[in-house]
Amino acid sequence: MIYGVDVGGSKIEIAVFDNKLQRIESWRVATPKQSYDAFLTQIAALVHQADDKYGCKGQVGIGMPGIVNAKQRVLSANVPCANGKTVKADLMALLERPIAVENDCRCFALSEASLGAGVSYKKVFGAIIGTGAGGGFCIDGALYKSAQGIAGEYGHHPLSALLQQKYGLPIWDCGCGLQGCLERYVAGPGLASLYRHFTDRELTSEQVVAAMRAGEAEAKHAFSCYMDLLGSAFANLIKAYDPEVIVLGGGMSLIDELVEALPQAIEPHVFSAIAVPDIVRAKHGDASGALGAAILGSKLDA
Ligand SMILES: [Zn+2]
After folding, report:
1. If both were cysteines, with which of 16, 63, 155, 174 could 133 make a disulfide (CB 3.0 to 4.6 Å apart)?
2. Known catalysed reaction(s) (predicted)?
């Protein structure tokens, strides 16, 4: 059996797959936030439960927010207790088997490139627009892996000076330690932040979308600014990776107006003779993180 473990800021899910990567079942528990030992013990308990249930020693892939750097240390703001820790080595010792650990957005990209909406393309960028904005690049169904684990972090490219001036935007601090990262403007909470900037009113991003659909002028303006910024963010990743398709995931990708407007929003930010690649929604949705982790786990020698 193969287990894909999807670690989030609030929940850890384990999904059990057969050797053909067909999902059999999954279950989830709360993420221990304060104690690193409790965090490790919780993941080990999930894996051992699956081992006991299926009478085997399954292969394990883990997807989690943050990056795994060249020294194999996890840098993660969402799972603070794991920040700076050698999660892979520590879990391998507890589980007594090789495991794979990868950024959750990269797991999403891999699942969509090899078994999802990007399967008919050779060069696929998977982009999450959700709580955060991150992604990964795949070539021929395999994840492009880089020395320091930061390839694909399109959300931490800087806000364009042109757009900052056009909309009179403030430079917001980012959780990564930099300032003016696009993630603060184009991830899910970014639309609410832009609306607050233009109106001094507090709405959630979902409420801004509802107000836009109801015809409110300020919400329309906030959304059109949001799309301009998202178009520039995606133009940056097209210039960096030149993918044949961009597969969208995360909560914002469920907004029809966003998906429809995105190609036109990208166009002004790339060179005039360059075609915008295909842009499609993910096939696997919220299940993609566990699936991508399982794909990585399936490639390990048992
Ligand atoms: Zn950042």
Report:
1. 155
2. N-acetyl-D-glucosamine + ATP = N-acetyl-D-glucosamine 6-phosphate + ADP + H(+)
How many Å lie between the centroid of ligand 1 and the Cα of residue 154? Answer: 9
Which residues, 6+ apart, have CB-to-CB distance to 52 below 8 Å? none
Q: Chain-wide mean pLDDT for the chain?
A: 95
Span 229-265, pLDDT tens digits: 999 999 999 999 999 999 999 999 999 999 999 999 9
The reply to whether 139 and 16 lie within a common domain is: no
Cα–Cα distance between 203 and 193 in angstroms, integer?
Answer: 9
Using CA atoms, how far apart are residues 71 and 181, in angstroms rounded to an integer? 25
The pLDDT of residue 34 is above 90: no
Tell me, in angstroms, the distance from the centre of ligand 1 to residue 76's CA. 12
Residue-number span of the structural domain to which 77 is assigned: 2-107+286-299
pLDDT at 302 over 80: no
Q: How far is the CA of 177 from the centre of ligand 1 (A)?
A: 6
Distance 25 CA to ligand 1 centre (A): 35
User: 229: exposed, middle or buried (C-beta count within 10 Å: 0-12, 13-18, 19+)?
Assistant: buried
| 125 and 268 belong to one structural domain | yes
For residues 76 and 99, which has the higher predicted lDDT (pLDDT)?
A: 99
Ligand 1 mean position, distance from CA 234 (Å): 16
Give residue 218 CA to ligand 1 midpoint distance, Å: 27
Residues 131 and 98 in one domain: no
* 176 CA distance to ligand 1 middle (Å): 4
Phi and psi torsions of 271, nearest 5°: -65, 150
Q: Tell how far the Cα of 132 is from the centroid of ligand 1, in angstroms.
A: 10
State yes or no: pLDDT of 272 exceeds 90: no
Domain assignment present for 16: yes
**Separation of 174 CA from ligand 1 center, angstroms?**
5
This prediction's pTM: 0.94
Residue 252 lies in a domain: yes
How many A from CA of 248 to the centre of ligand 1? 20
